[in-house]
Amino acid sequence: MNAAAAPGRASGTAAVGEADARGASAATAATAHCDNCGAAVSGHYCAACGQRLEAPVQSLWHFTREATEDLTHADSRLWRTLGALLFHPGYLTREFLAGRRARYLPPVRLYLVISVVFFLWASATHEVRVVQFSEKDGPSKAVLAPLDEQTFGKALPGESAEQHAERVCSSGVNYDGPWHERLQPAAHRACVRFVLDKGRSLPAVFMHNVPRALFIFLPLLAGVMMLMYWRPRHYYVEHLLLFLHNHAFLFLLLLVAGLVSALLKPLAGWIAAAVTLYIAWYAYRSMRIVYGQGRALTLGKLVLLSFFYLVSGVLMIGLVSVYSVLTL
Fold first, then answer.
1. Whole-model pTM?
2. Poorest-pLDDT segment among 57-71, 264-278, 301-315
3. Which three-class secondary structure state does DSSP give residue 110?
4. Hey, how many other C-beta atoms are within 10 angstroms of the C-beta on 123?
């Protein structure tokens, strides 16, 4: 009987040893500390700063594995966000407001990155055109013409580039409206620089100022939306998030359409028409998804918003153009 009892005691001792080992391992994990901030970590991530708990890099294979995991995770998050942005109107805004945010890029970061890429592309691919007045075959007509060596005429014999620019601008820039004393000299200086560098500086300055103006334009639109959706009441940030996502979509769609049009030039007109219709439908659908109102009411509010968007957009472009000229 004693012999039979011995294995039982040995088995019980082994079980107790395994339980002690698990307890010691759990205690060790519970008392682990974050290498970044020093806080106690009980899981895979630090609750204080968010850094992942992992062993120091010990080999090239370990480093490659960690880098691949991070890159794959970032790529899946990026493509998931871009896919939802392009093909699911209002979805990202609704997900963010519902608290489901970890799977997607933050809206402000998404807008900033896409807008920077868009304006860099627009600056690199734009074509500078000027308004010319032609008096051939009848009355004077204003036409848009590409900027070339003949736009401002040729320099006279013995005339320097600076003298040529001064001569062109002295007859071409004559502002006599409000604030003449301040605006006329600034406009003349901008004209001289524009002639000297063949029109390269002004579009670059304009493209640089437009993203700044949007930081005023988008909050203004969000304020208009707050008035339109007063009942039931929504927070101002909800409207601002919708405009951030919708403008990020707009920049991304124009980027994709520009690349496709460059590859399929015979279909550029059809692509432009399809993009215009898709933008209108996207704006309508995003408002329906986020606010949940009926079709007729949403369509009426979209018409009002489009009118305000057009008027304020033209005003913004005009102010940015004047500011760009005066600061050239």
1. 0.71
2. 57-71
3. helix
4. 14
